[in-house]
SET domain-containing protein
Amino acid sequence: VFEGRFVHGVREGRGKVVVQEEDGDWIIMQGIWSGDELVYAADIVDSEGSVTRGPVKGGVVEEYVDGNRLAFVGRYEDGVRHGHGVIHHLGGGETKGVWKGGVLDETSASYQYPCRFEQRLDASDLVEDISDTSVISRWPLRPDPYESRRVYVKPVPEKGGEGLFARIPLLPHEVASFYNGVRLSHEVVDGRGWELNDNTLSLGPDEVIDVPPPWNETNHYCATLGHKANHCHVAPNAKYDFFEHPRHGFIKCIRVLDAPIAAGEEILVDYGFDGEHGFPEWWKPPTATVAK
């Protein structure tokens, strides 16, 4: 269905067309038409909320996801990524490189961490290391350079465990640490006791990440350290947030709240227990900080 102007039976000028696909999804294409072809798209919107904005044939195009989050800026040719471009990852990182026919040339790729971090990962460092239900990492003792610059783990004897601490001053809203783990379903996690769920963290309605023994100890796993952050309900200084990591994929991070964190200060998050499945044995009324 086309909404717009026809000249001599062909689409001309600004207009919009809705395309219904066989699987029930749809695409809206709106922009400037010439000779019955869309030559400049102000927006191409799909049923998942993704938006592509820019010239159709070729030129600089912007891609948005979730309606308004910028996900990509770069050159297109014949409707696909082709040439220099930048992926803007959820959480703040960027992948820069050259696309050919819609495919990123991995030899040209580099990753830039967020938050003032000067080190850039080149193609040789960008090796995918996505966890599954039984393997947390192929290189569990290979630390993340960004995280290593910002945080460290040390014992907290008065709390009976370990904690996560700022190595350098951290700014408000800065990403401090990453939280990777094996990937389990909510059914698996909810069906077992709290003693097995010390390091579980929801990734959404379908998935939970977990850092079970022996990976909960840094001599077995230190690729990410977010699971070492202790709980504080009254005065947390950081929170869990989503993050697209160049190595671990879709995980969570620990992000500083509204106030800076000083070097040497412990990083504390609210675990957000809602009581739906009870509470762990170590749980205390919301007046104390409890260590891992």
